[in-house]
């Protein structure tokens, strides 16, 4: 078995509930699993090597996982996401002179940050059924789809959940509507 396979097996064992001896929750270093899960790097390396976490340091786990081409993240270098919309609202409240001064001193190239987030794996059959039900028309305003998709010429409508998945809504045809981009934005921000 290759070392990479051992790591994948350790990740699956961890996801199935196996924990190494003397396991402690990780604070900073995480390895990304095959589906984007953030898993404690030291615990995974302990399962791979059979060595207790107290008998090696985190650097060993990070180096070992990285050498096998797994993505390892130090979350101390991540920043909380800030809403661009909220920042714009704050900027609009500033006196024009202060905003102009900030613009004059701002870097021209924006900084980059790593964003790790959870995402729902949506059912493509729900999306297909809702789009077919709507045909070419928005199910909120009744307008014709504003344009056709390049890839297949189908009418461009966006499938929206009436009760959001993040608030316990179901990924079902009954809980979804096909909306034009304007109505979709209205549902989220109106």
TrEMBL record:
CDD domains listed in its UniProt record: HNHc (cd00085)
An example Gene Ontology molecular-function term: nucleic acid binding
Residue ranges of every copy of the HNH nuclease domain listed in the record: 126-185
Family annotation (Pfam families): HNH
Protein name: HNH nuclease domain-containing protein
